[in-house]
Amino acid sequence: MAAEDIARLELEKTNPKKDPDERSYQYYRENWEWKYAEEFGSFEATTRIPAMCFTDKPTKPGVTNPERSMQIFSVKVEEIYGDLHWPLDVFGIVAVRDDLDHHRNIIFERKRDNCQTLNEEDPYLLLTGPTRAPVTLFGPMHFDITLKVKRSNELEDKDLSLLGFRYECCKSINYQASKGECALRSCVSSQKHRSKLSTLELTCSIVVSSIEATISVCIVGGSWPDGFSGRFIASTASVSHMRVLLLNIGDKDTPVVAADGTIELSRRVVSVESFGELRVHAAGWLGSQQIDREVFFQPLESGRSSRSLKVGSCEMEVTVGWSLFPLCYPTDRIPSPKNG
């Protein structure tokens, strides 16, 4: 029996009446703290490693490389149990942890006073991360999830999901990674995890030999078209049927635009195979006219690429900042959490 399994059994013996989901999460947290707290600090800390670390100042060989990384497409509340009924006002945190710094890389975060309302027709969390591409250097990713349902007062709030677990995507890639071999094909998988009062379905991809791509969209001519409803979406050639939602816009919505014309995207960081292709789409409706615009990018190891995209009279520039992944942490460009 593995040491982790023995430790879990011992924890169950000391807390026989504790809720099994809480006991499992407690074990996940205590195991993390035993392994990483001395070097990396607090369990609740979020990653301090930003996106685009090596976009403007490429490093010498041996410091960075294309690596396997994770693309997170969706987190869905698949089923609810107990006395829960749709719609749900949901708040809390969904984060992914990688073995670069082991900290929370937030993909969803809502406070109690800013819940997302989910219904049976649209039970997907509106993701806002990751802040940087999660990378697989030595082992699988971990998800850290604490979600609640808001009721009339805090004492009546319900625990929707409480999870801490390893996410292993496709067996073929995991096998190759464990053998130190180079996997040549990206994969997509969906997994369901039940805890508390729900089952969550997570759909993710492991992107092989990948480069981090940070996307920005800026209005450079005209103005935002009134009445446009649609989405900005990113996809890669290898799993072109899967989409990363960058921004969803209703027909009565106007996106947040900074003084310099930059549109505030919900998500902006994706992963692309070094030998692949990134596609950015603007798709939707402008009145009765269907809009489908698309621009393509060939990955670079550093620097930026820009393409023009037009919706109605609004001309936009889509820019991608490219960055390789560090092979270790900290580096001269990414300081230790204990030193900064």
CATH topology title of the domain at 210-325: Immunoglobulin-like
- What's the CATH class label of the domain at 210-325? Mainly Beta
Cα-atom Rg, whole angstroms?
21 Å
Report the end-to-end length measured between terminal Cα atoms. 41 Å
Q: What is the mean predicted local confidence, pLDDT? A: 89
Tell me about the largest β-sheet.
8 strands, antiparallel
Beta-strand residue fraction: 35-45%
CATH superfamily of the domain at 210-325, by name, is C2 domain
| Multimeric organization | single chain
- What overall geometry do the principal axes of the alpha carbons give? globular
| Total of DSSP H or I helical runs spanning 4+ residues | 3
Low-confidence segments, given as residue ranges, are 174-179
